[in-house]
Structure formats: C-alpha cells, structure tokens
Amino acid sequence: MIPALAHLGDSTPRRRGGARSLARRTADAIGHAVAEVLENDELASSAGLMQALDPRVKLVSVLAFSVVASFVHSVPMLLALAVATMALAVASNVPIASFAGKVWTSAGFFGLLLSAPAATEWITPGQILISLGPLSITAPGLLIATRLIARVAVGAGFGLLVVWTTRWTDLLRALSAMGVPDLVVATLAMTQKQIMSLLRTVENMHLARESRMLTGGTVRQNRTWVIERMAFVALRSMKTADDIYDAMLARGFSGAMPSLVDLRATARDAAWTAASIAACALALVIDRMVFPV
Amino acid sequence: MHIPDGYLGPQTYAALDAAIIPIWAIAGSRIKKTLKTKQVPLMALAAAFSFVIMMFNVPVIGGSTGHAVGAVLIAILLGPWAACVSVSIALVIQALVFGDGGITAIGANVINMAVIMPFVGFYLYRLVAGDRPGYGRRIAASGIAAYVGIVAASIAAGVEFGLQPLLAHTASGQALYAPYPLSVAVPAMAVEHLLFFGWVEALVTMGIVAVLARQDSALLEMKPAAKPLRWLWAGLAGLILLTPLGVLAQGTAWGEWGAAELRASLGYLPAGLGRIGSLWTSAMPDYAPPFIADPLVGYLVAAVLGSTLVVGVTWLLGRLLARPNEDPKQPGPGPGAA
Lengths: 293, 338
Prior knowledge:
The complex is a heterodimer of chains A (293) and B (338).
Chain A: H1 22-45, H2 55-71, H3 75-91, H4 96-115, E1 128-130, E2 137-138, H5 139-165, H6 168-177, H7 182-212, H8 219-250, H9 267-289
Antiparallel strand pairs in A: 1-2
Chain B: H1 10-35, H2 39-53, E1 58-59, E2 65-66, H3 71-78, H4 80-97, H5 106-129, H6 135-167, H7 182-215, H8 228-242, H9 245-248, H10 259-266, H11 271-277, H12 295-321
Antiparallel strand pairs in B: 1-2
Helix pairs in contact in B: 1-4, 1-5, 2-4, 3-4, 3-5, 3-6, 4-5, 5-6, 6-7, 8-12
C-alpha cells in the first residue's frame, strides 16, 4: 500500500511569478518517479487479465505484439492495435484515463512534435490539404505523420502494459527463466533497489536545499551545487558497492547466484498464447490483404 | 536520445538488437577478468548512478536546464566495458520499469549510449589526458571526451533515423518509419547536441571529475586502455564495411556538385569553374574504380584503397618527421602505454 503522504500535492509557497525553484522542481520530479514505481507495483499486484498471466508468456507475447506493430503499415490497422492496447488495459483494471494520458502525452506528444515537419510540403511534397505557404500540409505528409504517431503510440501502449501489470520481481523471474544469466538478473535486481535508494537520497538533498534557501540562487550557484551533489552521489555509489560486497561476503556469498525460477504456466497461459498468435497473424493478414499500402 | 518503439523499422532494430548480444558477452567476460566477484554490486551501483544522474536538472543558460547521460564519466571511473554493462542495465530498467525508450529499440539505445558514447569518450580521454595527467589536463580531457562522446552517440542515432526512409518506404516513396532522410536527421540530432546537450555533458563530467580529483583521486586512476590501436583498426574496418551505405543516399552533398550537375541546376557552367575543374582528372572519380562494374563493390574497394593510402602517407610522414635519436621500440607516454 502506498503511504498517503506520497499522494500529497506540492503545498510549498510559490516564489514570485508562480515559478518553483530548481531544487523543488527536481525533488518533485524524483518524488513523482518514485511514487510512480510504487503505484506500478501496487497495480501489478491487483487482479486483472494481464496480471494473471505467467510473466514469461506476457513478456514474449507483448514483445511479439510490438514486433507485429512494427510490420503493420496501414493507419486503420495501427489504430485498431492502439484500441487493442486500451482494451487490454481495461481488462487488466488499469485506469484507462491514466493509461491513455501517459501514452499520448509521452509517445503521442513527442511523436506529434517529431512528425509535424514531415507532414509539410517542405519534407513531403504532394497534394496540398491545408495551404500554409512552404509549411502547407500535404496529403502524403499527413499520412506519414499519422502513421508514425499511431505506431509510436501502439509501441508505447504495449510497453506500458508490461510496466504496469508486471511486478519487478516477476519480470526478473521471467528473464531468469528465459535464459538470461543469473549474474545479470542479480545485477538488475540490485540496480533497481539502489536506484530507489539513490533517488530518495537525491530527493532529500534537493528538499534540504529548498528548505534552506530564501531565493532561487543564481544559475552558476545552482550549477555548482548540482554538480557537487552528483559527485557526492558518485562517491557514495562506490562506497555503497564496497559495503554491499562486504555484506555479501559476510553472508557467505561464494559467487553462485540463487536461481529465481519457480514459474509454472497454466491453461490460461496456453489460451493466451494461442489467442496472441491468432491476433498477430490476423493483424498482419488484414494489414496486407485489406489495407495494402 | 532514448529512441521509442515505432521510429525504427524491423531491419534496423533487429540488426542492432542482434549486435548487442556479442557486445554484452564480450563485456561480461572482460569485466569478470578485471572486477572479479565485486562486479555485481559495483555494476549495480554504477547502473543506478547512471540512472540517477539523468534525473538531475543542470542549469545551463537563462532558465533552461538539461540532463547528462554520464556514460563517459562511468567509463573514466570504471573503464569502457564496465560502463557499457552498467549503462545498458540502466537503459533496460528505464525501458522495462519506467517505460522510457522502446522495447524493440533497446539494441539501438544500447549501441548509441552504452557502446558508442563510453568507448569514444574513454579512448579520447586517454588520448588527450595521457598516462599521468595533471589536474587541469585531466579535467579538460574529461570535458572534451564527454562532449565528443555524446555528439558521436547523437550522430549514430541520426544515422539510424535517417536510414529509415531509404530502407522502408511505400511504392510511392512514402517513409514507413522515421520520415526524415539522412540529410535532415543527422544534422538535426548533431546540432542540438553540438549546441546544447554536448555542453551539459561536458560541464557535468568536468565538474564531477574536478570534485573527485580533489576528494578521492584514487578513483580516477588511469584505467588500462587495452591496445587502443587494435580498436582503432577494428573501428576503421567497421567504417569501411559500412561505406556502401553511401551508395544508398541520393544526390550529391551540398556544395560538392560536379560540372554536369551545376550545368543542369544553373543552366550554365561558370567559365572559371569549367577551366579549373578540367585541370585534374582523378584516378577514381566519384569513388568508382573504373575496373569494377558493381557500384557497391566499387565503393568498398575505393574505401579500402583510400584508407590504405591515408595510413601509408601518415606512416611515411611519421617516419620522416621522427627524431633520428628516438628509439621506436621504446614505449613513450600515451594511451597505448598503459
């Protein structure tokens, strides 16, 4: 359960003009990232279609969906896949507004920014739909931009489904069962823990600075402070690595990594696999036969 | 620079995903030799540091901020192979836990930020810093290495984007993935890193190296640059093998038009240009040896001949300019001496 404090909004007084200080903005961003990981874990532990799947089956099937999405070229089929990601989110009890918001603000918004010039006559000449001089929107340009945005949104949607419906420990089990060396899996597990620990340290550093500062400080002061904190984090990382290694030795670490594999696929996983294969094949057939480009 | 899913076509991401497997295998065996069993916590903390460093907003100019990748810094601290593994782990976690960077594009992101950036940065750092650098030279070298490292990575990303319209398009020429050609994608990626992100990376790396040099200089002990010449040769061979990509690009580089192209676009040929342009006829015009019919093979042969010529002339000049009392067998200070 996520502590209620993690959901509290920023109640600190704003500086003149409403802008938050750099320290506050960074602390908020880090706090948001940490809270997001905790929320993801909570969501992944709840009941739902994708949460109930064996993580190996889920990982491979989502990877297959992402690969199929990269082979699909027609806009209607890509939009259908985008709708499919949302249907899977609903079936997995993922809040659909958050899901759509995350997909479209991250992937969709950046896709729009990146693909917008491609929609113009400057990059893609062709029949003009909206006349804006050299930046007129052309029909083939609009098609290219729409296809790119839809494809990126589909990819982000499938990626987010894995992130939001799989606990990190289950993901590590899946990777271990799929042949990823135990040493790599152990490093991944330790990295994630240390990321959270270092993020908390960095967040506290920024909050402490915010609480001590009456003004925002100059660019130079802020830059010097940030770089010194980064160096501190580097030094602390090295020291923590030594401490962890000493602790591992003290606990009898001999270099062998315990295996995390204790997964068992069920009939539900078999049905999901069959449905996934059928869906992938159907998407490709419809794309090539019904909407050839 | 994190490439999401959808921008790269299957030909590109499959090739790059496949390419990282042997790189990770080599990196794993290399760090096992140097770091022994301490590698797990050290790699984990280095990866965590690589992740966390990206969360720091660094004030640059006015109200703008940027963030660093830190791959060159980790390469300076732990060596390039360890940096390759730790930044790779950070990128995998970003993709699988935070949804930053695509699942199919993991190979591309790893090649750019966990291979090209630390290796280019590390060897440049060794080259500029030498074996026993002083405080100022060490910091300058780290800044130059970080700047060039991230710019090199951004150019690689630009090439990956720019190849898409050439590799995958409809019958009418519409791009199916990233829509911008090499002539747009490479400058767009390079310019933003040359003008902004490169400076952020350099500033952060120099600042941290300066603090570490004052507080715990043992961390900055020069890591062995195992036979850098071997890597330069390998890099040269890789670039030669990639030269046929140049044949895929349409048109001529801006400002390098031949007489026929100028006449076609201007409607006439400037008299002076026509006079001077005919003074010298090259042995292999347009990198196409006259004795080879296939343009791809011809381009490859031209690259091999050109590289051999450049290396040969440089070697000859080095021999001529070397001081007569220098013993060529005596290793001098430099990156290869470690």
